[in-house]
Amino acid sequence: MDELREHPQVAELIDTLDKNDMHKEKAEVESLVDYIGEMEKTLSEMLKEMQNMRKEISLIHNSTLRSKCQNLVQKTEGKIKQIFAVIGKIKDNFIQAVGNAVRTFKEKGKEAFKKAVRAMKVPETFDNLSGLFGKFSKDIEQDVAQIDSMQTELTGAKNHLKNVGRLLVGKPAKEAEQEKSDKGILSRLGKVFGKIGRGFETLSQKAMDKADKIRAADVKESVRNELDALKGIKGAPGKSDPIRDR
């Protein structure tokens, strides 16, 4: 999804940063834009998998098991939709900040433009997203554990029925087929939840890495500016060097 990168104001901002040799700031903006696109794509795929899984769950014969699985899927769909809502707000705020930065450049010049770009708080946005995905990743871990527990319960019930069958006539073939089908659907649900959990964890780590990279670049630039300032003081005419004057 490249709709944000293709937004006229975003495209203008990136072009303005490039033409003013603000390559670090340009990299920050592009990093956030690309991440949002990747995030939307990943979440859309997750939502599609949940919807497909919802159809499969409706085929579970055990009503108690079916209800538990439906609740898990509904809860996870809710998390994904919640993130989409957060993304919507981030995009709206981002586009508003982009428009403000471009206007600032046109009205007040490059130095004011730099401050306006910093006010977009790109690393802080990555921090917030990393924390959100990290939390949801841990929530999914608990859901996977619950699915594992349901699989154990189902296996235990199956073994119990086998024992009853030995005492009586035996378990009907149809009932055995239903249990096998339920177990297969539950196994697929566990795999899908595991995949979604890993997806949340990956998005969390990527956001954290991007925030760290931006801050490392800021520190590097700050050190370079301080060194340049010191060189300027030493090289200024009329300034004496205490060491040489000794």
Notes on the structure:
- The protein is mainly alpha-helical.
- The chain has one domain.
- Helix content is 87%, strand content 0%.
- It is built from 7 helices and no strands.
- It has helices at 8-19, 23-57, 63-108, 110-118, 122-167, 173-235, 242-245.
- The longest helix has 63 residues, at 173-235.
- The protein is elongated.
Draw up the topology in text.
Layout: H1 8-19, H2 23-57, H3 63-108, H4 110-118, H5 122-167, H6 173-235, H7 242-245
- Helix/sheet category: mainly alpha
**Residues in β-strands, percent:** under 5%
Please indicate the count of domains.
Answer: 1
Q: Rg to the nearest angstrom?
A: 28 Å
* Largest sheet, strands/sense/barrel: none
- Helix count equals 7
The 3D shape can be described as elongated
On the 0-100 scale, what is the average pLDDT? Answer: 86
List keywords for this structure.
single chain; 246 residues; mainly alpha; 7 helices; 0% strand; elongated; disordered C terminus
TL;DR?
This protein has 246 residues and is an all-alpha fold. The chain has one domain. The protein has helices at 8-19, 23-57, 63-108, 110-118, 122-167, 173-235, 242-245.
